[in-house]
Design goal:
The protein is α/β, with parallel strands linked by helices. It contains 12 helices and 14 strands. The strands form 2 sheets. A 9-stranded mixed sheet has the order 6-5-1-9-10-11-12-13-14, with helices on both faces. It is globular, with a radius of gyration of 19 Å. It holds the Pfam family PfkB.
Length: 337
C-alpha cells in the first residue's frame, strides 16, 4: 500500500492509539466461586470462548466497559482534555457494541469497522474477591485479527503521535498494520510511540521489537524490567544507556522510584507522585503514557510531561480499575498552579 499524505495539514488529534480492543467485565465474587470454577486467584489467565461464556454465566452483577492497554491510555488522554482516536478490532456483537459506545462516550474518536465473521469481541472477566485481589480471565477473540485494512490513513495522518501497544505485536497481520501505521505517520511528519507492554512480550519478540524501535519508533515507553529484557542486561543503568541510542525519546517507569526520561543528552528523573494508599496497580503504565503524551503534544517540557504522567498514574492506582475516576484535567490544573 502506498503512503500518500499531506504534510502541511494541521494535526486535528493529539494521539491515536492502536491496540487490543477488549471489554473489561468486573464483578465481585467470593473465594468459593473461584475455587468452584478453577480460577487461579490473583493471576491473569488466557481462556477460549467456551470458557469465557461459562464464566460470564456465573458472574454476579458486573460493570462492563471498554478496556485494553492502549484503550486505557486514550481514555486517560480524553480525561486530560486531549484529542484522541483509537484503532482496534471488535466483532459486530453485544460486547462489540459495549466497546464502541464506551470508548466514544469517554471522548475518544473510534471508527474501526467491526468484523462480521470470525471470533467474537475480546473480553477480560475480572473477579474481585473481598481481599481486593483481582483474578483476570482474558479471551482475546477478534482483537488479534487487526490487519492493514483496519488502519485509518486519515486518522493516523491527522494525529501528532501514533501510539502502538506491544501486546498486539504477536499476530503477523498486526505487525504489518503497525509498520504501515508508522510509515503513514512519518510520511505526514508525525511521531510514532510504542509501549513494550510486558516483559514476557519482550522476551517473545526481542529481536523484532529492537528492529521496530530502531527503525520506526520515536518515543518508547517501558518499565524497568521491560527495558532490561529488551537489551538483555541485568541492571537499569546499562539499559538506560542502550535505549538512548535507539530512539529519540524514552520514558521509562520504575514504580515507586518514579520515572526517567531521556532525549539525546537530556536525562530527567521524575519522582513518583505520592499516593495515600495503593489499591490496584492495573493501568499505571497506561495512564503514565496518557499523561506524558498529553503533555508532549500540548507544549509541555519533557520534565513536565513526565510529571503529568506520574500524576495520572497515581490517580489510577488509588482505586480499582484501569481508568481514571477523577477528572485528570482538574487534577493537573491543581498540581500545576
Amino acid at each position: 500500500m502506498s503512503v500518500n499524505v499531506n504534510q502541511s495539514e494541521t494535526a486535528s488529534l493529539d494521539v491515536v492509539g492502536i491496540g487490543n480492543a477488549i471489554v473489561d467485565i468486573v464483578a465481585t465474587a467470593e473465594d468459593n466461586l473461584l475455587q468452584e470454577q478453577g480460577i487461579i486467584k490473583g493471576a491473569m489467565n488466557l481462556i477460549d470462548q467456551d470458557r469465557a461464556d461459562a464464566l460470564y454465566d456465573v458472574m454476579g452483577p458486573a460493570i462492563e466497559r471498554s478496556g485494553g492497554s492502549a484503550g486505557n491510555t486514550m481514555a486517560g488522554i480524553a480525561s486530560l482534555g486531549g484529542r484522541g482516536g483509537y484503532i482496534g478490532k471488535v466483532r459486530d456483537d453485544q460486547f462489540g457494541q459495549v466497546f464502541r459506545h464506551d470508548i466514544r462516550a469517554a471522548g475518544v474518536k473510534y471508527d474501526t469497522l467491526p468484523a462480521t465473521e470470525g471470533p467474537s469481541t475480546a473480553r477480560c472477566l475480572i473477579f474481585v474477591t473481598p481481599d481486593a485481589e483481582r483474578s483476570m480471565n482474558t479471551y482475546l477473540g477478534a482483537c488479534v485479527n487487526l490487519t492493514v485494512a483496519d488502519i485509518d490513513e486519515k486518522m493516523i495522518a491527522s494525529a501528532q503521535v501514533t501510539y502502538m501497544e506491544g501486546y498486539l505485536w504477536d499476530p503477523e497481520e498486526a505487525k504489518k498494520a503497525f509498520i504501515l501505521a508508522a510509515e503513514i505517520a512519518h510520511a505526514a511528519g508525525r511521531k510514532v510511540a510504542l509501549t513494550l507492554s510486558d516483559s514476557f512480550c519482550v522476551a517473545r519478540h526481542r529481536e523484532s521489537f529492537l528492529d521496530l524501535v530502531k527503525n520506526h519508533v520515536d518515543i518508547l515507553f517501558a518499565n524497568e524490567e521491560e527495558t532490561m529484557a529488551l537489551f538483555e542486561v541485568d541492571n537499569f543503568d546499562t539499559a538506560l544507556q542502550k535505549v538512548r541510542a535507539c530512539c529519540s525519546v524514552a520514558a521509562l517507569t520504575r514504580s515507586e522510584k518514579g520515572s526517567v526520561i531521556c532525549c539525546g543528552d537530556e536525562v530527567h528523573v521524575i519522582d513518583a507522585e505520592p499516593v495515600d494508599h495503593v489499591v490496584d496497580t492495573t493501568g499505571a503504565g497506561d495512564l503514565y503514557a496518557a499523561g506524558f503524551l498529553f503533555g508532549y503534544t500540548n507544549g509541555y517540557s519533557l520534565y513536565d510531561s513526565g510529571r503529568i504522567g506520574s500524576i495520572a498514574a497515581a490517580e489510577v492506582i488509588s482505586h480499582f480499575g484501569a481508568r481514571p475516576e477523577k477528572s485528570l484535567a482538574t487534577l493537573i490544573g491543581e498540581k500545576f498552579k
